[in-house]
Amino acid sequence: MFTGLVAELGSVQKLARQGNSYHLTISARKVLENLKIGDSVAVNGACLTVVRMDNDGFTADVMPETVRLTNIGSLNAGDKVNLERTLRLCDGLDGHIVSGHVEGLGVISSRKPEGIAMVVTITTPAALLKYIIKKGSIAIDGISLTVTEVTDTTFSVSLIPHTAKETTLGFKGVGATVNLETDIIGKYVERMLTWKKPSGKQAAPLDMNMLMENGFM
Fold first, then answer.
1. How far is CA 38 from CA 56, 61, 139, 194, in A?
2. Which residue of 19, 28, 53, 123 has the fewest CB atoms within a 10 Å radius of its CB?
3. CB 97: neighbour CB atoms within 10 A?
4. How many CB atoms are located within 10 Å of the residue 40 CB?
5. Are 56 and 12 in contact (CB under 8 A)?
């Protein structure tokens, strides 16, 4: 589990392809502290497992499912990536609950300054857009951000100067892809409301009667 607060910008050393999978090697400093083989690191919002490491960075395997759903397969040597270590029980939840399970790609359609901020608008597949609400949370390349506007095809976020300076969204231009993970709570609520039993019958509706009958009220 992550919070969407990027610890540092790492640099891609090498992306080695093996069939439809990859070995990704990244230079880093901050996230290496107490890091060990088998630990998880979010790379542009995708949870990857460390398989090798040294004093300058780490290597992670990237499976085909991750290649299909993220922009990791298009990375090149020298590209910057957002890095975050997993949430510890003693840490504060300053962002929002992020699983590191990227659901798909968005495309930056505009960047417009607004006072000290930069408003970034992202064209998004309808399958993901339905989970995105105004003033809700979204993880973009692993960055926890608040949604400022939603349309039928896009959503927007506003970046403070610190976020623009310390993450990939500060330099990605129009047409660039970004990894998206929507708020996990909305997806579970939808599943509870639409789930059907193995018999094919619709499960009991999530309403006041159901909550009272099961001791929630």
1. 17, 11, 24, 36
2. 19
3. 16
4. 17
5. no
The helix (H) or strand (E) run that includes residue 48 is strand 46-54
Q: At a CB cut-off of 8 Å and minimum separation 6, what does 36 contact?
A: 50, 53
Of the candidates 194, 69, 68, 185, the one whose C-alpha atom is nearest the C-alpha of residue 131 is: 185
Burial label, 142 (beta-carbon count in 10 A; 0-12, 13-18, 19+): buried
Apex CA 208: angle with CA 207 and CA 214, to 5°? 95
Which is nearest to 10 in space by CA: 102, 1, 24? 24
| Segments in the chain below pLDDT 50 | none
Helix, strand or coil for residue 128? helix
Give me the residues paired with residue 118 across strands: 113, 159
Rounded distance between C-alpha atoms, residue 61 and residue 91, angstroms: 27
Model pLDDT, residue 129: 96
Exposure string over 100-134, b if 16+ CB within 10 A, otherwise e: bebbbbbebeebeeeeebbbbbbbbeeebbebbee
In eight-state DSSP terms, residue 87 is P
Rounded CA gap, 87 and 144, in Å?
Answer: 14
Chain segment 15-32, per-residue pLDDT in tens: 999 888 999 999 999 999
